[in-house]
Amino acid sequence: MLTRILEEIRAAQGPLSLRDLSRRLDVQPSALQGMLTQLLRMGKLEIEQEMPADASCTSCSGCAGVQDCPFLFHSPQRFRIAEHRPRPGV
What we know:
Blueprint (H helix, E strand, L loop, with lengths): L1 H11 L3 E2 H8 L3 H14 L2 E4 L29 E4 L9
């Protein structure tokens, strides 16, 4: 099944959300989440999360930044095939 997930994302030629993958593979999102987590741990997938172009965090102080701001709308996570970059110094 992990191979099917990777094949589906490659076939889509772009990132897919959990909901999109669930529909394409006819698998419940709750079951698919564990498989995606495993693929992330293996380094086969990456998460792409788009932030609004006008995202800025000026409403509070002491925040960890735009990515972690609870007051901004965050679009659903989308999964893409991991880009294998050479590690520095290797």
